Amino acid sequence: MILPRGFYLQDTEKIAKALLGQRFCRSMGRHVLSGTIVETEAYLGLKDPACHSYHGKKTPRVNVMYKEGGPVLRIYS
User: Kind and range of the H or E element at 12?
Assistant: First the structure.
């Protein structure tokens, strides 16, 4: 199953909890790699002092945090 983009546009903490225990797969040539998500981190951006984008800091390292969510991942329950 491919999770829809809308899944990734939810509350960050809700997404982190929902991903726990899910399986992910990646095809590499003739091989398929897979694993189970056992840990997630949920950084809350501008309001989270543990986040590299805290207080609007913008560097190449954090540019992805300013983009719309929703990379396509195959998640298997």
Answer: helix 12-19
**DSSP per residue, 8-61:** HTS-HHHHHHHHTT-EEEEEETTEEEEEE--------GGG-TTSTTGGG---GG
Give tens-digit pLDDT for 27-74.
889 999 999 999 998 878 788 888 877 888 888 877 777 777 765 445
CA neighbor of 62 nearest in space, from 71, 54, 53, 70? 53
Prediction pTM value: 0.67
DSSP assignment letter at 69 = P
Facing residues of 44 across strands? none
